[in-house]
Amino acid sequence: MSSVVATIVGIPMMIGIGWLVWYAWNNNRLLDKKLANGDLELLDSKSYKVTEVVRAPAGSRVEKIALQTMAVDMSGYVRKTLPDGRIALVPVAMNQDIKSVHSSMHTNQQPPTQ
Q1: Which of 16, 37, 45, 91 has the most crowded CB, counting CB atoms within 10 A?
Q2: What tens digit of pLDDT does each residue of 97-112 get?
Q3: Using CA atoms, how far apart are residues 73 and 91, in angstroms rounded to an integer?
C-alpha cells in the first residue's frame, strides 16, 4: 500500500521538478539567444531588470570607481586621510574649474614610530 502512495506522490513530483529544470534551462537559452542577437526588446521587458547597458569588446569588465568631492583650500592643497589614519596635504593645480579631485594616492611612507 505504501509503494502505491509513494508512486502516486512521487511521479507528479518528479514531473514537476523535471519541468522546472527544463523551464529554467530554456529561459537561459532564450535569453542568451536574445543577447547574442542584440534584441532591444529586452530593455523594455517586464521579465528582466536592466540596470546598466555597456557597449564594450568581449571580455571587458566594468568597475565602479567612487569619485570623492574634496574641498580645496586657497593654498592649493587637498586634505587626504591615508589608510593608516594619518592626514596628508596633497598639492593640486590652482584652477577655478576644479570641482572635485579623484586621487588614487599610494604611498610607501612608513607610519611614525613611537
Answers
A1: 45
A2: 545 444 455 555 555 6
A3: 10
Integer CA distances (angstroms), 94 to 68, 81, 89, 91, 100, in order = 18, 21, 14, 9, 12
Take residue 100 and report the three cell numbers written for it. 572635485
Q: Residue 20: which region, alpha, beta or left (left: phi > 0; alpha: psi -120 to 50)?
A: alpha
Does the pLDDT at position 14 exceed 80? yes
DSSP helix/strand/coil, 54: coil
Question: The C-alpha cell of 53 is what?
Answer: 547597458
d(CA 96, CA 72): 10
How many CB atoms neighbour CB 103 within 10 A?
13
Helix (H, G, I), strand (E, B) or coil at 88: strand
Q: Which residues pair with 106 in a beta bridge?
A: none
Contact 78, 72 (CB under 8 A): yes
